[in-house]
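User: I'm putting together notes for a lab meeting next week and I want to include a structural view of one of the chains we've been expressing. I don't have a solved structure, so I'd like a prediction I can at least talk through. The sequence is below, exactly as it appears in our construct file.
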Amino acid sequence: MSVLVTGGDGFVGQHLIAALLAGGRRVSATTVSTEPAAGTLDPDAFAAARWYHVDVGDPAGLERTLAETDPAVVFHLAGFSSGAQARGRVDEALAVNAGGTLNLMSAAHAAGLRRPRFVVAGSADAYGGDDALIDESMPLRPRSLYGTTKAAQDVVARGAGRALGFDVRVARLFPLIGPGQGAAFVLPSFCRRALRVARGEGEPRLRVGNLDVERDYTDVRDGVDALIRISNLAPGPHHAYNVCSGRGTAVGQLLTWVLDAAGIEVEITVDPSLLRDGEPERLAGDPKRLQEAAKWRVERDLRETVRETYRWVEATSGDLREPGEQA
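Assistant: Thanks for the context. Below is the predicted structure for the 327-residue chain, given as C-alpha coordinates.
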Protein backbone atom coordinates (compact mmCIF):
# COMPACT_ATOMS: atom_id res chain seq x y z
CA MET A 1 0.00 0.00 0.00
CA SER A 2 1.26 3.47 -0.92
CA VAL A 3 1.03 6.19 1.72
CA LEU A 4 1.98 9.87 1.84
CA VAL A 5 3.17 11.63 5.01
CA THR A 6 3.10 15.42 4.94
CA GLY A 7 5.64 17.02 7.22
CA GLY A 8 7.52 13.74 7.16
CA ASP A 9 10.78 15.09 8.57
CA GLY A 10 9.13 16.43 11.72
CA PHE A 11 9.24 14.82 15.16
CA VAL A 12 6.12 12.67 14.73
CA GLY A 13 6.67 12.23 11.00
CA GLN A 14 10.04 10.53 11.34
CA HIS A 15 8.75 8.06 13.93
CA LEU A 16 5.70 7.42 11.74
CA ILE A 17 7.76 6.80 8.61
CA ALA A 18 9.96 4.32 10.50
CA ALA A 19 6.88 2.41 11.68
CA LEU A 20 5.24 2.45 8.24
CA LEU A 21 8.38 1.15 6.53
CA ALA A 22 8.73 -1.56 9.15
CA GLY A 23 5.15 -2.57 8.33
CA GLY A 24 5.93 -2.93 4.63
CA ARG A 25 4.26 0.28 3.38
CA ARG A 26 5.56 2.23 0.38
CA VAL A 27 6.18 5.67 1.84
CA SER A 28 6.38 9.06 0.21
CA ALA A 29 6.85 12.16 2.36
CA THR A 30 6.84 15.92 2.00
CA THR A 31 9.14 18.49 3.53
CA VAL A 32 9.26 22.29 3.27
CA SER A 33 13.07 22.11 3.42
CA THR A 34 15.23 21.51 0.37
CA GLU A 35 16.68 18.55 2.27
CA PRO A 36 14.73 16.65 4.96
CA ALA A 37 15.81 17.55 8.48
CA ALA A 38 17.94 15.05 10.39
CA GLY A 39 16.36 13.45 13.44
CA THR A 40 15.57 9.94 14.60
CA LEU A 41 15.12 8.37 11.16
CA ASP A 42 18.13 6.22 10.24
CA PRO A 43 19.87 6.62 6.85
CA ASP A 44 18.38 3.46 5.38
CA ALA A 45 14.86 4.63 6.23
CA PHE A 46 15.59 8.07 4.80
CA ALA A 47 16.70 6.42 1.57
CA ALA A 48 13.67 4.10 1.49
CA ALA A 49 11.16 6.97 1.57
CA ARG A 50 10.53 9.12 -1.51
CA TRP A 51 10.87 12.78 -0.55
CA TYR A 52 9.04 15.72 -2.12
CA HIS A 53 9.87 19.37 -1.48
CA VAL A 54 6.42 20.97 -1.34
CA ASP A 55 4.59 23.40 0.91
CA VAL A 56 0.93 23.04 1.93
CA GLY A 57 0.52 26.64 0.76
CA ASP A 58 1.29 25.51 -2.81
CA PRO A 59 -1.86 23.89 -4.27
CA ALA A 60 -0.25 23.19 -7.65
CA GLY A 61 2.75 21.51 -5.99
CA LEU A 62 0.45 19.44 -3.81
CA GLU A 63 -1.59 18.35 -6.83
CA ARG A 64 1.55 17.23 -8.70
CA THR A 65 2.82 15.35 -5.64
CA LEU A 66 -0.49 13.60 -5.03
CA ALA A 67 -0.92 12.69 -8.70
CA GLU A 68 2.59 11.18 -8.80
CA THR A 69 2.37 9.28 -5.52
CA ASP A 70 -1.33 8.24 -5.76
CA PRO A 71 -1.53 7.32 -2.05
CA ALA A 72 -4.25 5.16 -0.58
CA VAL A 73 -3.69 6.90 2.77
CA VAL A 74 -2.48 10.43 3.49
CA PHE A 75 -1.15 11.15 6.97
CA HIS A 76 -1.35 14.92 7.25
CA LEU A 77 1.18 16.09 9.86
CA ALA A 78 2.51 19.27 8.25
CA GLY A 79 1.75 22.46 10.12
CA PHE A 80 2.36 24.45 13.27
CA SER A 81 2.57 21.96 16.12
CA SER A 82 2.71 24.07 19.29
CA GLY A 83 1.68 27.32 20.89
CA ALA A 84 5.33 28.31 21.20
CA GLN A 85 5.83 27.86 17.46
CA ALA A 86 2.67 29.84 16.65
CA ARG A 87 3.29 32.67 19.13
CA GLY A 88 3.58 35.93 17.20
CA ARG A 89 2.70 34.13 13.95
CA VAL A 90 -0.96 33.32 14.50
CA ASP A 91 -2.10 34.48 11.05
CA GLU A 92 0.48 32.21 9.45
CA ALA A 93 -0.42 29.33 11.78
CA LEU A 94 -4.10 29.63 10.80
CA ALA A 95 -3.22 29.77 7.09
CA VAL A 96 -1.01 26.68 7.39
CA ASN A 97 -3.07 24.56 9.78
CA ALA A 98 -6.54 25.23 8.37
CA GLY A 99 -5.82 26.62 4.91
CA GLY A 100 -3.10 24.08 4.22
CA THR A 101 -5.44 21.23 5.13
CA LEU A 102 -8.05 22.54 2.71
CA ASN A 103 -5.38 22.96 0.02
CA LEU A 104 -4.28 19.35 0.49
CA MET A 105 -7.78 17.92 0.16
CA SER A 106 -8.67 20.15 -2.76
CA ALA A 107 -5.45 19.10 -4.48
CA ALA A 108 -6.32 15.43 -3.95
CA HIS A 109 -9.68 16.06 -5.60
CA ALA A 110 -8.07 17.96 -8.48
CA ALA A 111 -5.51 15.16 -8.95
CA GLY A 112 -8.36 12.67 -9.38
CA LEU A 113 -7.36 10.44 -6.47
CA ARG A 114 -9.67 7.50 -5.99
CA ARG A 115 -11.18 8.08 -2.56
CA PRO A 116 -7.99 8.40 -0.50
CA ARG A 117 -8.20 8.06 3.26
CA PHE A 118 -6.90 11.00 5.29
CA VAL A 119 -5.61 10.85 8.86
CA VAL A 120 -5.18 14.43 10.07
CA ALA A 121 -3.02 15.22 13.09
CA GLY A 122 -5.29 17.38 15.23
CA SER A 123 -4.62 18.60 18.74
CA ALA A 124 -6.16 18.38 22.19
CA ASP A 125 -5.63 22.14 22.39
CA ALA A 126 -8.75 22.44 20.24
CA TYR A 127 -10.79 21.30 23.26
CA GLY A 128 -9.50 23.97 25.62
CA GLY A 129 -9.23 21.86 28.77
CA ASP A 130 -11.51 20.55 31.49
CA ASP A 131 -11.31 19.03 34.96
CA ALA A 132 -12.83 15.77 33.74
CA LEU A 133 -11.43 13.39 31.15
CA ILE A 134 -12.31 14.83 27.74
CA ASP A 135 -14.04 12.59 25.22
CA GLU A 136 -14.74 13.27 21.56
CA SER A 137 -18.30 14.47 22.24
CA MET A 138 -16.96 17.59 23.97
CA PRO A 139 -17.33 20.70 21.79
CA LEU A 140 -14.20 22.41 20.53
CA ARG A 141 -13.71 25.46 22.77
CA PRO A 142 -10.04 26.43 22.48
CA ARG A 143 -8.51 28.71 25.10
CA SER A 144 -5.44 29.73 23.11
CA LEU A 145 -4.82 31.20 19.68
CA TYR A 146 -2.86 28.10 18.70
CA GLY A 147 -5.75 25.93 19.87
CA THR A 148 -8.03 28.08 17.71
CA THR A 149 -5.95 27.27 14.61
CA LYS A 150 -6.15 23.54 15.40
CA ALA A 151 -9.90 23.71 16.03
CA ALA A 152 -10.26 25.41 12.64
CA GLN A 153 -8.16 22.66 11.05
CA ASP A 154 -10.34 20.00 12.69
CA VAL A 155 -13.53 21.55 11.34
CA VAL A 156 -12.04 22.13 7.87
CA ALA A 157 -10.75 18.55 7.63
CA ARG A 158 -14.04 16.92 8.54
CA GLY A 159 -16.12 19.40 6.54
CA ALA A 160 -13.99 19.15 3.40
CA GLY A 161 -14.05 15.37 3.71
CA ARG A 162 -17.82 15.38 3.60
CA ALA A 163 -17.93 17.90 0.74
CA LEU A 164 -15.41 16.04 -1.41
CA GLY A 165 -16.47 12.52 -0.54
CA PHE A 166 -13.21 11.58 1.20
CA ASP A 167 -12.79 9.37 4.24
CA VAL A 168 -11.26 11.71 6.82
CA ARG A 169 -10.29 10.86 10.40
CA VAL A 170 -8.89 13.45 12.81
CA ALA A 171 -6.49 12.11 15.42
CA ARG A 172 -6.80 14.54 18.32
CA LEU A 173 -3.31 14.18 19.69
CA PHE A 174 -2.70 14.92 23.33
CA PRO A 175 0.98 15.81 23.96
CA LEU A 176 3.41 13.31 22.47
CA ILE A 177 6.92 13.08 23.88
CA GLY A 178 10.06 11.12 23.08
CA PRO A 179 13.43 11.16 21.34
CA GLY A 180 13.71 13.62 18.48
CA GLN A 181 11.36 16.31 19.78
CA GLY A 182 12.37 19.94 19.18
CA ALA A 183 14.08 21.97 21.89
CA ALA A 184 11.16 24.38 22.25
CA PHE A 185 8.97 21.68 23.84
CA VAL A 186 8.92 21.20 27.59
CA LEU A 187 10.61 17.80 27.92
CA PRO A 188 13.59 18.37 25.59
CA SER A 189 13.97 21.86 27.07
CA PHE A 190 14.26 20.34 30.56
CA CYS A 191 16.70 17.75 29.18
CA ARG A 192 18.95 20.37 27.57
CA ARG A 193 19.01 22.51 30.69
CA ALA A 194 19.72 19.54 32.95
CA LEU A 195 22.47 18.36 30.60
CA ARG A 196 24.17 21.74 30.86
CA VAL A 197 24.28 21.38 34.63
CA ALA A 198 25.49 17.79 34.40
CA ARG A 199 28.31 18.91 32.09
CA GLY A 200 29.26 21.74 34.44
CA GLU A 201 28.25 24.36 31.86
CA GLY A 202 25.60 26.04 34.00
CA GLU A 203 24.71 26.84 37.58
CA PRO A 204 22.69 24.13 39.41
CA ARG A 205 19.47 26.11 39.34
CA LEU A 206 16.50 26.18 36.98
CA ARG A 207 13.86 28.85 36.43
CA VAL A 208 10.53 27.24 35.56
CA GLY A 209 6.89 28.04 34.95
CA ASN A 210 3.91 26.29 36.52
CA LEU A 211 5.04 22.77 37.44
CA ASP A 212 1.58 21.82 38.71
CA VAL A 213 0.03 21.89 35.22
CA GLU A 214 -1.11 18.40 34.19
CA ARG A 215 -1.05 17.09 30.65
CA ASP A 216 -1.92 13.69 29.19
CA TYR A 217 1.49 12.68 27.82
CA THR A 218 2.00 9.66 25.56
CA ASP A 219 5.18 8.24 24.06
CA VAL A 220 5.43 9.27 20.39
CA ARG A 221 5.87 5.64 19.34
CA ASP A 222 2.56 4.73 20.96
CA GLY A 223 1.14 7.79 19.22
CA VAL A 224 2.23 6.71 15.73
CA ASP A 225 0.90 3.22 16.42
CA ALA A 226 -2.44 4.92 17.09
CA LEU A 227 -2.22 6.89 13.82
CA ILE A 228 -1.61 3.70 11.84
CA ARG A 229 -4.43 1.87 13.61
CA ILE A 230 -6.78 4.79 12.90
CA SER A 231 -5.83 4.59 9.22
CA ASN A 232 -6.68 0.88 9.20
CA LEU A 233 -10.17 1.25 10.64
CA ALA A 234 -13.09 0.46 8.36
CA PRO A 235 -15.28 3.48 7.53
CA GLY A 236 -17.71 4.12 10.34
CA PRO A 237 -19.71 6.76 12.17
CA HIS A 238 -16.74 8.34 13.98
CA HIS A 239 -14.39 10.84 12.41
CA ALA A 240 -12.38 11.95 15.45
CA TYR A 241 -10.31 9.91 17.88
CA ASN A 242 -8.48 10.99 21.02
CA VAL A 243 -4.90 9.75 21.16
CA CYS A 244 -4.07 9.82 24.85
CA SER A 245 -3.45 7.67 27.92
CA GLY A 246 -6.43 8.72 30.02
CA ARG A 247 -4.34 10.15 32.85
CA GLY A 248 -2.66 13.46 33.56
CA THR A 249 1.00 13.84 34.51
CA ALA A 250 2.27 17.01 36.16
CA VAL A 251 5.01 18.93 34.36
CA GLY A 252 6.91 18.80 37.65
CA GLN A 253 6.95 15.00 37.45
CA LEU A 254 8.63 15.19 34.04
CA LEU A 255 11.27 17.48 35.53
CA THR A 256 11.87 15.10 38.44
CA TRP A 257 12.41 12.22 36.02
CA VAL A 258 14.79 14.34 33.91
CA LEU A 259 16.88 15.27 36.95
CA ASP A 260 17.00 11.61 37.94
CA ALA A 261 18.16 10.68 34.43
CA ALA A 262 20.86 13.36 34.61
CA GLY A 263 21.89 12.32 38.12
CA ILE A 264 21.83 15.90 39.44
CA GLU A 265 20.12 18.06 42.02
CA VAL A 266 19.22 21.67 41.28
CA GLU A 267 17.57 24.65 42.89
CA ILE A 268 14.18 25.24 41.28
CA THR A 269 12.67 28.73 41.14
CA VAL A 270 9.27 29.64 39.71
CA ASP A 271 9.65 32.58 37.32
CA PRO A 272 6.41 34.60 36.89
CA SER A 273 7.50 35.59 33.37
CA LEU A 274 7.26 31.91 32.35
CA LEU A 275 3.66 31.52 33.50
CA ARG A 276 1.04 31.47 30.75
CA ASP A 277 -2.19 33.36 31.27
CA GLY A 278 -5.33 31.34 30.65
CA GLU A 279 -3.50 28.03 30.52
CA PRO A 280 -5.74 25.16 31.66
CA GLU A 281 -4.48 23.46 34.80
CA ARG A 282 -5.41 20.04 33.45
CA LEU A 283 -5.82 18.59 29.97
CA ALA A 284 -6.40 14.85 29.92
CA GLY A 285 -8.42 12.75 27.51
CA ASP A 286 -10.60 9.68 27.42
CA PRO A 287 -9.11 7.17 24.94
CA LYS A 288 -12.03 4.73 25.14
CA ARG A 289 -13.25 5.25 21.55
CA LEU A 290 -9.83 4.45 20.09
CA GLN A 291 -9.25 1.58 22.49
CA GLU A 292 -12.51 -0.08 21.55
CA ALA A 293 -12.35 0.59 17.81
CA ALA A 294 -8.68 -0.17 17.18
CA LYS A 295 -7.68 -2.34 20.15
CA TRP A 296 -5.01 0.27 20.92
CA ARG A 297 -3.32 0.60 24.27
CA VAL A 298 -0.47 2.68 25.64
CA GLU A 299 2.50 0.32 25.92
CA ARG A 300 5.46 2.47 26.96
CA ASP A 301 6.28 3.71 30.45
CA LEU A 302 6.64 7.50 30.56
CA ARG A 303 9.57 7.43 32.96
CA GLU A 304 11.51 5.31 30.47
CA THR A 305 10.42 7.66 27.67
CA VAL A 306 11.94 10.54 29.64
CA ARG A 307 15.19 8.61 30.16
CA GLU A 308 15.38 7.80 26.44
CA THR A 309 14.74 11.43 25.54
CA TYR A 310 17.49 12.61 27.89
CA ARG A 311 19.92 10.11 26.37
CA TRP A 312 18.94 11.24 22.86
CA VAL A 313 19.53 14.90 23.78
CA GLU A 314 22.85 13.93 25.37
CA ALA A 315 23.94 12.05 22.25
CA THR A 316 22.89 14.69 19.72
CA SER A 317 23.45 18.02 21.48
CA GLY A 318 26.29 20.30 20.55
CA ASP A 319 26.01 23.89 21.76
CA LEU A 320 23.46 23.97 24.60
CA ARG A 321 23.38 27.74 25.02
CA GLU A 322 19.99 29.36 24.96
CA PRO A 323 19.13 31.63 22.00
CA GLY A 324 20.89 34.98 22.38
CA GLU A 325 23.32 33.71 25.03
CA GLN A 326 26.96 34.69 24.47
CA ALA A 327 29.84 32.29 24.60
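A couple of points you could mention at the meeting. The two ends are 50 Å apart (CA to CA). The chain has two domains: 2-176+219-243, 178-216+247-285+300-316.

User: Perfect, that's what I needed.
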